[in-house]
Inverse folding.
């Protein structure tokens, strides 16, 4: 596996990128403090204050008392008796979010929004000729402050994984740069929980295996990681070395639409499988309608209890016309596989070969279609 | 809160509102439906995505304790769907949980407080008029296929409504994606005079159309301002859909509607549609162009694909002008032809690079403009 590692590092060195992760500081709470001077400098929680409310966001003043988002309001008030609760105003947050997006797009078209208040920017191309990604990050932060009167933290590095870790480093209103060559060292000292994708359960499992930090993780070989973490291993192996080859993705053009379910109990009986499939059809078809997507290939995927994956696909001559046709094809694919050799733990159904209703997907190489407006 | 509702009534109302709720939400309460049981024995359900909200009032079998709460819209809908027909469903809230009971089933669902549920502030809606639901449905059906999905031109992501004085006062609905345009014109309803130009977003159009399907015999009350629009179906106790309008300027589309196209082609829209569909079979995704060769009283459709060979079909038609060739996107052409419910369709052409006007006849309220492809 040494080869794989060397290739990764080469790949990263070959196309050295400049990635910025921008994250607004205590976004909802900051918008409230901006709009109501009375709230500034005070511990503020956005969310319901009633007996059953939950904190949606907490200002930094409130965080000092240990108030966190998703905490019951009652607990928050106990931690911080002076905590001021305000109702959320989604419109205001959305407006600020749109302003921020517009600022990002001034510097680059390669913007990948992660949520209402954070995004990745790929500024390798340096459209405005600013000369340094760190300088771009500073300008973005300044412009956000000037236009929205809110603060943002930014992380600058050569991949998304490191940029996100960096933005978290000097919060709030901070900037952190991880330069080429520094990534591996930076990651070594991190507690494992700060790795994106490692939740409480994952951290617990790693603790049992004696992995507490990035350095512990880097000390394990890929075979060990594959044995314990399956398909997650490759990501962990790279992350522990500060390597991440994922590109910044703008609104991707969808190639397929689907959904899958993992069951709490394994299923093998025909009736249960059919019912499960009906459920998945419901969920996936709704997504298809919502996206106004049309496609002619249906793929059924199942994962057996031994983690082997089997999939069967069928392409129709025309687009799948409606939900009942979608269900019919899905069921035909399922029946072909019955009886199953083993129970399954996951089932998924996907529509691909997509063509969108408006014909927008036909991004023609030449501009043969003439324009009306 | 405690109320009991007939399962079919609950399912129908939840069905109306739940599709507004996005499956994935960064803001948890947006996954929920607001349920409000009133003193008078009516239960209100409401769903929102912040840009669009749908509220429906349904009769309850009984309201024991008035109150309001929010629970997952899709969960409650799925539960209502699977409950046995004819059962009475009891909804009761205690200790941050909602207990749903029907027959032998019992569910306990997590809730979020109603005070956190965002409601669209309608403000003053000074313009009010009524339209028969059938007319509104037709107007949507004839135009919505042309709505753009391109987010960079957000002002095209909806149907544009405006009033005008042609020979008489009219209300026009138009949609375009920059390649084709659809417009539908009706007599101006009372009360619409002087209304602001508005763009109703695609999702609101889609949800409204679904609601109209169940209320085609009635009238729809429409109230609007320059920023919000409200559709009320089924009067008191019916369904109310309120949407924000797209904040942008719809382009002056009238200038792209050709007036001097002198080459008139008339033919049967159904055989035209089928012919286009047949020859387009071999078109690859990237070159979906169908070439039309026009000669006296006939049209030859051809498709040439680098991978799949060629296809041709000859159709009888009524055509007297000079022969020429023009190309169109097969899908766009089919979209428009499928709107024509008549034995003939008129295509008014100028040349291979100019917009083509398509309509049933000159009296038709619907009009389409299609831009050709270079072939």
């Amino acid at each position: 596996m040494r080869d794989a590692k060397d290739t990764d590092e080469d790949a990263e060195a070959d196309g050295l990128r400049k990635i910025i992760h921008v994250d607004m500081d205590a976004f909802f709470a900051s918008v409230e403090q901006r709009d109501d001077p009375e709230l500034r400098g005070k511990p503020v929680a956005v969310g319901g204050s009633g007996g059953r409310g939950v904190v949606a966001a907490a200002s930094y003043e409130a965080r000092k008392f240990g108030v966190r988002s998703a905490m019951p309001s009652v607990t928050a008030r106990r931690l911080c008796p002076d905590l001021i609760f305000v109702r959320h105003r989604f419109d205001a947050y959305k407006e600020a979010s749109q302003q921020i997006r517009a600022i990002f797009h001034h510097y680059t078209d390669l913007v990948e929004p992660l949520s209402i208040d954070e995004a990745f920017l790929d500024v390798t191309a340096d459209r405005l000729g600013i000369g340094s990604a760190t300088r771009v990050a500073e300008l973005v932060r300044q412009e956000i402050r000037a236009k929205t009167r809110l603060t943002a933290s930014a992380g600058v590095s050569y991949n998304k994984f490191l940029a996100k870790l960096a933005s978290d480093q000097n919060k709030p209103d901070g900037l952190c740069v991880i330069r080429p060559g520094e990534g591996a060292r930076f990651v070594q000292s991190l507690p494992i929980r700060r790795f994106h994708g490692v939740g409480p359960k994952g951290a617990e499992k790693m603790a049992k295996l004696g992995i507490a930090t990035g350095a512990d993780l880097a000390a394990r070989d890929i075979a060990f990681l594959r044995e314990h973490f399956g398909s997650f291993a490759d990501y962990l192996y790279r992350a522990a070395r500060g390597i991440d080859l994922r590109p910044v993705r703008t609104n991707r053009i969808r190639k397929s639409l689907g959904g899958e379910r993992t069951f709490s109990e394994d299923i093998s009986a025909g009736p249960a499988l059919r019912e499960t499939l009906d459920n998945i059809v419901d969920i996936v078809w709704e997504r298809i309608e919502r996206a106004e997507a049309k496609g002619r290939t249906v793929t059924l995927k199942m994962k057996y209890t031994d983690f082997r994956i089997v999939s069967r696909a069928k392409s129709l001559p025309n687009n799948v016309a409606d939900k009942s046709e979608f269900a019919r094809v899905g069921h035909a694919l399922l029946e072909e596989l019955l009886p199953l050799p083993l129970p399954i733990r996951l089932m998924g159904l996907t529509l691909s070969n997509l063509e969108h209703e408006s014909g927008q997907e036909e991004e023609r190489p030449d501009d043969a279609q003439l324009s009306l407006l | 809160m405690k109320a009991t509702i007939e399962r079919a009534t609950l399912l129908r109302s939840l069905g109306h509102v739940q599709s507004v709720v996005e499956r994935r939400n960064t803001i948890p309460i947006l996954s929920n439906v607001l349920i409000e049981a009133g003193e008078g024995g009516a239960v209100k359900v409401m769903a929102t995505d912040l840009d669009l909200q749908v509220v429906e009032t349904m009769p309850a079998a009984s309201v024991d304790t008035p109150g309001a709460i929010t629970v997952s819209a899709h969960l409650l809908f799925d539960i209502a769907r699977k409950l046995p027909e004819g059962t009475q469903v009891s909804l009761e809230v205690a200790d941050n949980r909602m207990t749903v009971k029907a027959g032998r089933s019992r569910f306990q669902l997590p809730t979020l407080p109603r005070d956190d549920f965002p409601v669209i502030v309608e403000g003053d809606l000074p313009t009010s008029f009524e339209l028969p639901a059938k007319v509104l449905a037709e107007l949507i059906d004839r135009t919505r296929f042309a709505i753009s999905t391109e987010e960079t031109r957000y002002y095209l992501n909806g149907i544009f409504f405006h009033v005008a004085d042609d020979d008489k006062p009219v209300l026009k609905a138009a949609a375009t994606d920059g390649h084709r345009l659809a417009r539908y014109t009706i007599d101006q309803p009372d009360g619409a005079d002087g209304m602001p130009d508005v763009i109703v977003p695609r999702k609101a159009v889609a949800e409204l159309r679904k609601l109209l399907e169940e209320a085609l015999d009635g009238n729809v009350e429409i109230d609007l301002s320059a920023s919000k629009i409200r559709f009320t179906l089924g009067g008191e106790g019916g369904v109310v859909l309120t949407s924000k309008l797209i904040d942008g300027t719809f382009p002056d589309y009238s200038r792209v509607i050709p007036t001097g196209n002198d080459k008139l082609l008339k033919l049967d829209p159904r055989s035209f549609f089928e012919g286009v569909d047949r020859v387009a079979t071999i078109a690859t995704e990237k070159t979906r162009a169908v070439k039309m060769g026009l000669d006296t009283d006939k049209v030859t459709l051809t498709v040439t694909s680098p991978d799949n060979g060629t296809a041709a079909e000859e159709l009888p038609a009524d055509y007297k002008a000079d022969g020429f060739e023009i190309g169109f996107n097969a899908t766009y052409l089919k979209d428009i032809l499928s709107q024509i419910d008549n034995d003939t369709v008129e295509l008014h052409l100028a040349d291979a690079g100019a917009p083509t006007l398509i309509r049933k006849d000159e009296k038709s309220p619907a009009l389409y403009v299609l831009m050709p492809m270079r072939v």
